[in-house]
C-alpha cells in the first residue's frame, strides 16, 4: 500500500501547503524532472503528460485567494461548505468527519487553525490510512467524506480564474480519484450539495 499512498500524500500537500514552503517547492521539482507520471499507474498517461508539461509554479497570492479565503472564494476547499445547508465551516458533516478521524487514531497536528475537512488535509488523511494498510477506513473516507463533495470542488477549481496551476492540479487529482474509485468499486454517497 505504500505506493498507493504516495499520490494522495503528494496531492494533499499541494492542496494544503503554501507554495512558499520548502515542502511544496520540493514537490514541484517533480514536474520539471519528469518523475510525476511515474508516481502512479495513470489510466490516461498522455493527458497526464499534457497536464504536467510546462506546469508553471503557483504563487502565494493564488494560494491565498483559493485556499485561505481572500475575498469571495470561487472554490472553497472545505467539505462542510458543500454539504451543510448554511455553507458553514465546522457544520454537521465536519463534526462527523472529525469523529471518523478520531475513531481511526488520526488527529490534525498543525499550527493553522483550520477545519479537518479541508480537501488537502483529507487527501493527507487518506494517505495515512493507506500507509497503515487500513484499506476499509480509506474506502469509508472516500465514499462518505471526500467524494460526495470532492468532484464538485474540483470542477470549481478547474474553472478558477486565478491560477492555471491549480486548475491543472484539480484535473490531475480528479483523474486520480476517479481511477481509485473505479478500481476499488466505491459507491460514494450522493447528498444534496449546497454550493
From TrEMBL:
The keyword Chaperone applies. InterPro entries: DmsD-type (IPR026269), DMSO/NO3_reduct_chaperone (IPR020945), TorD-like_sf (IPR036411), TorD/DmsD_chaperones (IPR050289). Keywords: Chaperone. SUPFAM superfamilies: TorD-like. The keyword Chaperone applies. Coiled coil: none annotated. It comes from the Bacteria. This is TorA maturation chaperone TorD.
Amino acid at each position: 500500500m505504500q505506493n498507493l499512498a504516495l499520490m494522495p500524500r503528494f496531492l494533499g500537500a499541494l492542496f494544503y501547503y503554501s507554495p512558499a514552503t520548502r515542502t511544496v517547492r520540493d514537490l514541484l521539482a517533480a514536474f520539471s524532472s519528469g518523475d510525476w507520471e511515474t508516481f502512479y499507474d495513470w489510466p490516461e498517461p498522455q493527458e497526464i503528460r499534457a497536464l504536467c508539461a510546462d506546469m508553471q509554479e503557483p504563487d502565494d497570492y493564488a494560494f491565498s485567494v483559493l485556499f485561505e479565503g481572500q475575498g469571495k472564494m470561487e472554490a472553497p476547499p472545505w467539505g462542510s461548505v458543500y454539504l451543510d445547508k448554511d455553507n458553514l465551516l465546522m457544520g454537521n458533516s465536519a463534526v462527523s468527519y472529525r469523529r471518523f478521524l478520531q475513531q481511526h487514531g488520526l488527529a490534525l497536528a498543525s499550527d493553522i487553525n483550520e477545519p479537518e475537512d479541508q480537501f488537502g488535509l483529507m487527501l493527507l488523511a487518506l494517505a495515512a490510512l493507506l500507509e497503515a494498510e487500513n484499506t476499509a477506513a480509506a474506502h469509508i473516507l472516500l465514499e462518505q467524506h471526500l467524494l460526495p463533495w470532492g468532484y464538485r470542488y474540483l470542477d470549481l477549481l478547474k474553472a478558477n480564474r486565478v491560477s492555471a496551476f491549480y486548475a491543472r492540479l484539480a484535473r490531475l487529482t480528479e483523474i486520480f480519484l476517479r481511477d481509485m474509485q473505479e478500481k476499488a468499486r466505491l459507491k460514494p454517497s450522493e447528498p444534496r450539495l449546497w454550493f
